[in-house]
Amino acid sequence: MFTRYLLLAGLALVVLPLAGFGLWLATLPAAPVTFAPPAIPLAETDAMLAALKPPKRARPLVAVVGINDATETTDYLMPVGILRRADIADVVTLSTEAGPVKLYPALTVEAEATIEAFDALHPEGADYVIVPAMSHDEDPLVTAWLRRQAEGGAVVVAVCAGAKIVAAAGLLDGRRATTHWYYLENLLKRHPSIRYVPDGRMVVDRGVATTTGITASMPMVLTLIEAIAGRGKAEAIAGDLGLGSWDSRHDSGAFRLTRPFAKTVLRNRLAFWSRDRFGIALEPGMDEVSLALVADAWSRTYRSSVELFAASSGAVTTRNGVRVLPDKIANTWPGQRLSVDEQPAKALDGALQEIAARHGRDTADVVAMQLEYPQRGSGP
């Protein structure tokens, strides 16, 4: 009898939470979202470019900052890789402390300096500071440093949920802004003076730029290149990335929590018996932007993880000077491997297509939703 009651109690512990989940699920929209971004007035684009002009140096100094224990992969690496391709600014990767920077959901890198060392070398501050999403919104070292940089005249660019860190520093109070769709409600609740701007992939207001989700870092950086060096240079870099066009158009209503999204995440999480562990060979000169996009995408399926392997434990330098550390020391990978040899925009589209082929279109849609990527075949 006791065993029977124990089994019934165990069943209740499973069924009741699932029933609650089912009720919550029923409240979510069921219809698939569509992507129909409104046009951006030319005057608005011109004003954005004017606001992003270099504030100090003819050849600007750009600092990309991260915390050591968890900084978003693509937010951190894509600005570095794209800006160094353009060779129109000096770009420095920073960390709060000495030692490796663990990116999430994949990869580990070595920053070129700590923020303390950067300040010693550049007491006048940076021209631009790029702020990725981080696991701690109110890291005191980062928020204090951002305030000092802004006071020194730097343009602060918050990529994705990096807006939360910039807001914690007090730099979004009373400003127009945007952020990743998933964090928007919380951001506005904690900082009610922020004036949210929908349907804009990037927003600039008085020396602070913000963007929507992860893949918005590509058009944001191309816009920054255009502001610094002109349209021709930005078009050339876009072509090198495999991108046909870019602008700030966005359909904010197409990115939200839906019933299909939640059901797919739950299903994939519960499929614990079927997990993929992919390897990527870490090789000198590989494209860090493609690497970031492919590793990021595959790590967001709730069905797979990505690890980098190399023959030795030392850091490997990418095409544009990022020092990446392997996760595993091995000459070969025992399981399935991923390729990152395409142009970045095509690499992401290819990864989403392969994810759909392996795990279904719904899983690829979940990944694209997390990346806030419109999936229109022309790149991010």
UniProtKB/TrEMBL annotation:
Membrane-spanning segments: none
Domain DJ-1/PfpI: start-end pairs: 64-226
InterPro entries tied to this protein: Class_I_gatase-like, DJ-1/PfpI, INH-QAR
One matching Pfam family: DJ-1_PfpI
GO biological process: regulation of DNA-templated transcription
Gene3D superfamilies: 3.40.50.880
This protein's name: Transcriptional regulator
